[in-house]
Design goal:
lyase activity; lyase; 34% strand; Pectate Lyase C-like; 2 domains; Pectate lyase superfamily protein; Pectin_lyase_fold/virulence; globular; GH28_Enzymes; 3-stranded antiparallel sheet
Length: 201
């Protein structure tokens, strides 16, 4: 499941990795690209070579113990140390929402499985989100990044929600359409974002 940003550059050939430089908020490299249109070099964050295994923060393997706090603690420590890898070792790790912080590479080792809880209440309190460009507060996504930079998910592991609960949300049921209509009304009448609260009802 390794995410490679180069694959996102459809039809663009990366041909040269050039110099590194230090910016106020970290160390970066630049990648020049050969494209059929003008394009500035891509700035790539160089993650510090330091690992933060979730087991160092109390995570328990097996798919039963809730590791949400342990993963959050590892992410917090990684961020405060200037960045690096938060490592999910091989095994099955039950968790609730994962909230990124800047300069964190969430790395799943081979045979690691992040098993997300199927209890919707685990994804509260509501967080700021958006739907079709409309900002509001709702259940946290499984993986959430707000006002972050330099984040990544890498490795050969698997992200695996318990789908029995989540799949019933896929069709746009009446309650979804009613909530969407309420949000449209809030948007059109300039209700402040902080008052557009969903999920807590």
């Amino acid at each position: 499941m390794k995410i490679n940003f180069l694959k996102c550059l459809a039809g663009v050939v990366v041909y040269l990795l050039t110099s590194s430089f230090t910016a106020p908020n970290g160390n970066y490299s630049t990648v020049k690209v050969k494209a059929p249109f003008p394009m500035q070099p891509i700035k790539v964050f160089n993650y510090p070579k330091q690992d933060f295994p979730i087991t160092n923060y109390g995570a328990i393997e097996g798919g039963i113990a809730d590791n949400t706090k342990a993963i959050a603690s590892a992410i917090e420590a990684c961020n405060k140390a200037g960045g690096g890898r938060v490592v999910i070792p091989a095994g099955t790790w039950l968790t609730g929402p994962i909230h990124f912080k800047s300069n964190v590479d969430l790395h799943l080792d081979e045979n690691a499985v992040l098993r997300f809880s199927d209890n919707p209440s685990d994804y509260l309190p509501a967080v700021q989100s958006s739907l079709e460009g409309m900002e509001f507060y709702n259940y946290s996504p499984l993986i959430y990044a707000f006002r972050c930079e330099n984040i990544a998910i890498t490795g050969k592991g698997t992200i695996s929600p318990k789908m029995d609960t989540w799949k019933i949300w896929f069709p746009r049921q009446k309650y979804y359409m009613d909530a969407a209509g309420k949000l449209y009304t809030m948007m059109s009448t300039n209700v402040p974002v902080e008052e557009r609260q969903f999920g807590n009802e």
